[in-house]
Structures are given as structure tokens and as C-alpha cells.
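Example (one chain per record):
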Amino acid sequence: MDTIRFGFYGRVSTEDNQDPASSRAWQLTRSRALIEPRGGVIVAEFFDVDKSRSIPWQRRPHAAALLKELRSPDRGFEAVVIGEPHRAFYGNQYGLTFPIFEHFGVPLWVPEVGGPIDPANEAHDLVMSVFGGMSKGERNRVKIRVRSAMGAQAQVEGRFLGGRPPYGYVLADAGPHPNPAKAADGRRLHRLELDPVASAVVARIFADFLAGYGLFSIAERLTRDGILCPSAHDPERNRHRSGVAWSKGAVRAILLNPRYTGYQVWNRQRKDEVLIDVDDVGLGHMPKLRWNPKDKWIWSDAPAHPPIVSREDFEAAQQTLHSRGDRYTDKTVRRAQHVYQLRGRLICGLCARKMQGHWANEMPYYRCRFPEEYALANHVMHPRNVYLREIDIASKLDRWLGRLFTPSNIDRTLDLLVAAHEAPSTELHEGEAIKRQMAECDRKLARHRAALEAGADPVLIASWMREEQGRKTELQHRLTRLPVARPRLLDRDSLAASLRGLGSLVEILGRADPTRKAKIYANLGLELVYHPSQHKVLVAVSSDQDHMGYGSVSEGGLEPPCPSLGTSTSS
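Predicted structure:
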């Protein structure tokens, strides 16, 4: 019997605490049981860990690597086997993926059809489509069950459901977990207890606001009195914040948080799945957090933790906030939505914060108002306002990009593009390493909890756990800052033909619709850092793509757009 070489694909999500090693083992066992009686042997493995089934194959690192390997005549395997189609395909993913296997002549084996899928067999196609629908239905049912259970726990039990405690509270142990299996693993419940220092600050904020002080005035008073802002009060958990002073946003967030009334409040936010590209639904969805209306919030039936403010004072603060906010009436002139081509791509070189889009004098500007947002932050060497006109940078930016695709540079640019997509992603490898370190943190925390249960010194164990939790939090921040890998398969010849057929890229960008142009800049991964003292913008093409190049664009002669308001483009 001739030996058939197989590539294996599997996937596991750790959202429900699955063990990747055991999941991979049983999926491999199921695959081998299908192929070994027919002379099959697995010579290559592609296994995605911690990737939701809803993510398309092109966005799963190892699934994308498998699809890329199909194109290679030297791939090393003749067929692909999947141990569990429920884990591999979701919704319509089978219909979007199997044609690629068929095109390159690579049979796809699954246990549910007893061998390779026959493209001409309608029953096979129906079975695989049904499995995709069942997989989607299973995920939706799990989501509904989990959300229903969490809602009931918040409303009936007033249970703390996780996350960082609000400023003004600290976490306290609330006993073993009511689920016996989780309790056996050392999981424990937590409750909110007052932070003696921060809770007094929260009470003062509500009192000042109800006394008539504004958000910025409260921030100024707190900073002037030497009271640490939330990020400075707990820097280990807020390493992504500057901690320089109280901001209006921090004061407003405290005034809007209903948990200061002593009630547990859940479902203030929801996670929606939105299409990445409405013109290419095959790219799938991405999660996006959105605020729920107040009638969707779930309040506990009774107080669940010590209150800082009364419910009456909280409601009074909400009414005052809404009365000061913008309210549209029939006579209100609604502003049109303006397009900013460099939205989210410009960074202030003085404070490393993203510059905001601002429409003035019928044209787009970008500004940084760092001292306007943080109380008493004027000791920072930063002008009150830093302005940059879009028109002063866009044309020069287009010329810089155009040089990458001139006849003298296009071959080098093509080589860089193809090499960047063929090379293994550094970010991907770094992300996997960070996840392994986080898993080790979880194992150590579990051992510490077990030691605590066994009667070890609680003070010593608590210090170990704080150290390990701090390390895990730092790793989580590093992981969230990594770019999302989007593997794309490029063919150099077809890419070269497309680019050479474009003509002058500068002319194309100059004629492009601003909305489409903004999308082009985003897809290129442009990053721009504005240095007002030098009147220059440092431009880099990186992000999801590996580095294509760097450059600088001079802004010589750029004058402050509105000197009467005290704005400036220099430090």
C-alpha cells in the first residue's frame, strides 16, 4: 500500500479553559484513525490556539500558513485531514475555503464523510455546509447561555463578574467559587471593598460637581491639592497612562459609573461583531465595544458592596451632566461629517498622543491639545495647541509614496513587499511567546492559590500573587500593542503588472476620493509623527506590513492658522 502524506489542521479556543495539548491530541487521534488504515501518515501540522472559530481561515495564523502552503509544489504533503470540522469551519467558511483546495488539487479528508470530500458529491457539500451552520449555532447558544447566566448572577446575587475594580474600590476575597469544579481548581469569588483613600476622592468629586463645579475645575482642584489621579494611584495596572494629572475624562468617567451607588451594574457595554470590509465579507468580522442604553443595564436587586454616593445623588449628577451636554433641537444646525484622510495616523512628537481631526476655515486640520485635557499639566514642554493643516502634508506625502513606485524604484519595492509577506511574522512569533508566558503566569497563580488553601503564610502568598498578577498584566498590555497579523498571499508578477498598469501613483492619489484615500493610507499602514519645532513629519510605512521605508516631509513656512487664539505649530 502506497503511503499518502498528509497535512493536519486543527484549532482550539481557550475561551472556555480548554487545554490546547489535550485538544490537539484527540483531534490528531481522530485524524489518524481515518487515514492510517488507508496508508496515510501526517507529516505536517497546522494548529491554531486561542483563535475563535468565527475568524476566517485567512486571518488565523496557521490556517493561513496552510492555505499558503497549498500553492507550493514542494509542500511536502499530498492531502489535508481535519479531525473536527466543527472546530475548523464556521458559518459559510467551508464554501469560501474548499474551492482553494479543489483549485490546487489537494484532497480534504474529514471523518464525517469517511474520507476525502468529493467536489461533485452534493451530499458531501450538504454535510459540510450543515456542520458550518451547526458550529455557528453552537457558538451562538453558548453566548446566549453565558450572557443569561451572568445577567442572573449580577441581578440576583450581585456577584462581581470580573475586570478591574472601579477607582475607589479594591478587590476582596469572597470565598470559594460556588461551582465545585472551579473551586477545586482554586478559583474564588471576589467582592468590592472601599479603598480608604480613593473612595474619599470619589465622594469629593460627586460633592463638588453637585455644588456647581465643572469637570475641568474639579480636575484642577484635585491636582492642585496633590491628589493622585487614577493612573498614578495604581500605576501597576495603568502603565499605558501618563499619570501626569487629573483629566476631564477621568472625572467624567467617575461621575458616569453607577457602581458607586453600592449596586452591581452589568451590561453597560456590549461586544458587537462588525464586518471588517463591507465590500469583502470573506474577511469576516471584528469585535467592537459599544455602549448600551440605560434601559439595557442590569442592576442588582439589592446593594452588593459599600456605597460611596447615594443613588439620589448619582441620579442628580446624571441629570446635571445631560443638561450641560449638547442637545439637538429642531433649530440646531447639524454639522456635516467631515473626512480626515490621516485620521488616527498622525502622532504628536511632543507627547506621543494621536492628533485629533479639527475642521476650521472650511478645511481639515489636526491638533493636539494635551495641556487642555489634563489639569495643571502646563509644566510639560508642550504648547497649548499644536496645529497641522492636512493640505500642507497630503500632497508631499503623496509625492513621497509615489517615489516608491517610480520605474527606478518599483523593482526594489516589489521585492520588499513580497519578502515581507513570505517572511514569518515577527509579531506573530512574539505574540505566541507572550501567550506562553501568560499561561505560565496562570499556572503559578493556581499553585499559589492551592498553597494558600493548604495553610501557607497568607502575607507571603499574597505578595507572590501580586507580583505574578502584575507580570501577567504587563504581558497583556504588550500583547494588545502588537499589530494584528493579516497574512496575504502575493504573486510578484501579477502585483508588478497591476502596479505598472496604474501609471503615476501621485496623480491617482491626487484624484482619489478623500474617503478612499484615507482607506489607502490605512491599508498601507502609514504612521506619521509631527515634530512642530522642526516643522517636519517623520513618515513610516509599517503596521501590518513589514517596514517598506521611512522618510520626512518638511513643513517649512507653515504658519499658525489662528494666532488670535494662541495656537502654535512650534514648541
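Caption: The chain has 19 helices and 18 strands.
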